[in-house]
Amino acid sequence: MSASTNELLQKARKNQIAVPGFNIPYLPMFEPIVQALRDSHSFGLIMVARLEWTKFEAGSLTAVAEEYHRVMDERFTRLHLDHIPVIDEDNLRVDYLPIIRNAIEAGYQSVMIDGSRLPLADNIAATRSVVELAHAAGVAVEGELGAVMGHEDGLTPSYEEIYASGKGFTNPAEAKQFIQRTGVDWLSVAVGSIHGAISKAFKDQKKVQARLNIPHLRSISEIVDIPLVLHGGTGIPKQYILDAVRHGCIKINIGTALRQPYEQTRFRSPGKAQQVVYDTAMTLLRDELNITGSAKIINP
Ligand code: 13P
User: Fold this and answer.
1) Is this structure's pTM higher than 0.90?
2) CATH number assigned to the domain covering 5-256
3) Which residue numbers are catalytic?
4) Staple partner for 32: which of 43, 89, 165, 278, CB 3.0–4.6 Å?
């Protein structure tokens, strides 16, 4: 039987190897990403977030699952459901449990519940309800504590102000409590990264170069013992990412780095757009994350 995604992430954590999570806002991005993972013998997750079928062209979570099952390669890939928010980027309440239930039925191998816009107690309660549902089906759950901003329309205050003030950074003691009380398998933490913008007004702009507060990350990773997740992986200087991986941030979510070059090319030449995704994914795997050959260790 093939290893569960959680077993694979645990192994990656033990060996301090990054596992990229690549977002799919457009279905034709699937093939080149899977091909890049296969050609570089790297292990990674392919993922879709709710906003990618509501605001982009992923279609639906079942459309993504169908395409995944057509092109997947068990050696190198697993399917993950990214951001199902309890309160979304437009401040609307989401009926998250039926979405998670549908995803598990459609074959997603891990899911994320994002209660980060809720007060701590409510985030714990929502995350706990998803853990109960998902674990009964053997599916791993990622939660989020702290605020990785950027999906909201416009970033106020500015990135520099957020970073300098540590606003929204994950509190280490709360992280420990959150994990104990929810039973989550992986935790998305806020330590300086931001999401690439997705609103019409900002989605084509070059993303700001974010930094990571590694001492803050270390203060979290010293007291929690599950894989941590870095959201907003696009455009962070390489040394920060490699340091983050060493300090337990194993899953690195990457969306904008592949979406923008795809969008810039797709109307001129759909074939070339897929090639651009392949080339960009290859560069990320080989030169930024340094994980060429990682499947040999993570999923032998
Ligand atoms: P970027 O688009 O900034 O790479 O972030 C992706 C992400 O974190 C999806 O969950």
Assistant:
1) yes
2) 3.20.20.70
3) 82
4) 278
